[in-house]
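sorry to bug you again but im stuck and you know this stuff better than me. below you get a single protein, a line of residues and a line of whole numbers that encode the local backbone shape. mainly i need to know what kind of three dimensional shape the backbone takes. anything you notice is useful, everything is just below:

***
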Amino acid sequence: MLLSKEQLEALRGQLVVSAQAYPGEPMRHPQTMAQMAASAVIGGAAAIRVQGLADIQFTRSAVEVPVIGLFKDGHEGVFITPTVHHALAVAQSGAHIVALDGTRRERPDGKSLAQTIKAVHELSGALVMADCGSLDDALAAAEAGADLVGTTLAGYTGERPKTDGPDLELLEQIAAAGLECPLVAEGRIHTPAQARLALEAGAFAVVVGTAITHPATITSWFSDALGGGS
């Protein structure tokens, strides 16, 4: 099922929950992530973001909201759905929106971002969310045809410092640029108050992952606050 403009517009002002677990963790299982996603929808998530082809497939069966899918290959450089091959595999697994690295860095397959987005649009019909790290990234991604741009990589590409919490300044900069595609806030949004600030900074929608779906990290926040149990 393709995502219509009306369904995309319905995400305005809403919460998107990212359900991901790192390799080697107890919850690193597609069905577990799908169950986490379904639980998030009960709580009010208007869309779900998941990593991995099996996770996308299981999540599509578990929820009726739009699914943003991605494929991480590696840990450095361009590793979020880095090639056309990865992007098409994500779309074919059932993602309504393919999330991919939307920076201006060289891609592993030598394709440009515009070529990658065009391939997704023409061969699958899925929408594309460009994960960006700066204003220039967002401007270039919009020009390349991205259907949404996100601040996912802010603080991770060397162009901007890693902020304590969401990069509200970058959100404001991109919002002020007046892009025609929606702006999605993502990255280090750990509290409801921060999510609200992201919307007020100009975000179309807000993605929250770790603070909702990563028990190990959430537990560590409490443990650290108590002195690590000492």
The first strand starts at residue 15 and ends at 19. The first helix runs from residue 5 to 9. The chain has a mean pLDDT of 97. The chain has ten helices and eight strands.
